[in-house]
Amino acid sequence: MPQEQTLILFKPDAIQRRLIGALLSRIENKGYKIAGLKMLQVTPELARKHYEEHVEKPFYPHLESFITSAPVVALVVEGPDAISVMRTMMGSTNGREANPGTIRGDYGTSRQMNLIHGSDGPEAAKREIPIYFQDNELCEYSLSLAASLMAAD
Ligand code: UDP
Fold first, then answer.
1. 120 lines ligand 1 (CB under 6 A)
2. Sheet strands side by side (includes 3-10)
């Protein structure tokens, strides 16, 4: 089982709506490890770097305004298949189409203000994590229950 790391952001709407704890609980309850955690203000420059594939798209100016409108919480989440499992937990991009039980499906109705970002594959995770975290900001440690909770397939 691959142990993966993925970049997760709680977006400005999650901070404005005081959902940091609720979203973090979902990740911890799932059994994943938090390898990095910080709150920061995204600048337009950082937004362009993060969303480089979207910069030329018509929705980008609105996305940049939104993502810079309040702080975000950035996390590196680690565990078995963390990238794809977090994407499943997040749900579809548009909150109106996301399944109930997913974060976007349970908390939102917007395509833009959809509460959470998660890397969409290994290449994206590899590119995105260093945008938000220096190596020395990530912690290596063992979860005491990790073996029993997560190692069994
Ligand atoms: N987005 C938007 N309008 C669109 C598509 C996307 O505002 O038509 C925003 C939305 O916040 C989304 C982000 O741009 O989460 C990145 O888009 P992507 O298609 O990568 O969706 P995600 O991977 O976040 O589900």
1. yes
2. 33-40, 72-80, 3-10, 116-118
Check if the beta carbon of residue 145 is closer than 8 Å to that of residue 74.
Answer: no
CA distance 4 to 114: 23
CA distance 46 to 71: 12
Q: What ipTM was reported for this prediction? A: 0.98
Note whether 65 and 59 are within 8 A (CB). no
Tell me the pTM: 0.95
Domain 3-151 has CATH 3.30.70.141: yes
Q: If the chain, 153 residues long, is cut into consecutive pieces of 10 residues, what is the mean pLDDT of each piece?
A: 92 98 97 97 98 98 98 98 98 98 98 98 98 98 71 60
> Which residue has the CA at smallest separation from atom 2 of ligand 1?
112
